[in-house]
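Aim 2 progress update. The chain analyzed this quarter is reproduced below.
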Amino acid sequence: MRIVFMGTPSFAVSVLSALVDAGHDLAGVYSQPDRPTGRGRRTSPTPVKVYAQAHGLEVSQPASLRRDATARGHLAGLGLEVIVVAAYGLYLPAEVVEAPRLGCLNVHPSLLPEYRGPSPVASAILNGDDETGVTVMKITDQMDSGPVVARKKTPIGPEETAGALTDRLFRMGAGLMVEVLPKWEIGDLQARPQDDSLATTTRLLSREDGEIDWTEPAARVARQVCGYDPWP
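Predicted structure tokens:
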């Protein structure tokens, strides 16, 4: 399939890599702009950009697809069948979502409609859940509320950190996406609307969340230690 991939952090690379290994036609890769990192505040390329350039893929880094009409026009002219999104981190306006013939498919690290929003993995650990999973969903104009194409469950390890679980979920999501795409192309899969009455929403974590209150019960502290690793 002719695809554009959109993603930014290291755990999104597994999804892009799976698309490349499956032989899809990557018309381009979109990632957030390079930003200063580390103590030296040196500008560094995003992990997705590093992988894409190493594999000869064209990389675009618009600061905002909402405000960049040139970037939106370029996307519309690529003749795409689908856009695959994994932790891109920028808003996709309707013009982008509607550009591919088969829409935009997103990898989300929870069993939607549970844990919509920016911190689904940490939230599942902090709440003491025994299992979580990954969802491939069709993107709409509402955050993480689009119809579900496929889901896959997995247990949460007793001492699994948010970082380790996030990596594992996106590897699972990569395999699920590659499995879904050919069926999606020929119409063998039907997206199912989410039940909004069952939805839960997560909030963006802040640095202050990493300050543990040692008067909390030990089980709660243990979940914080895992849920806030590697940040904050």
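The mean pLDDT is 96. Strands lie at 2-7, 25-30, 35-37, 42-44, 59-60, 82-86, 104-108, 131-138, 148-155. These observations will guide the mutagenesis experiments scheduled for the next reporting period.
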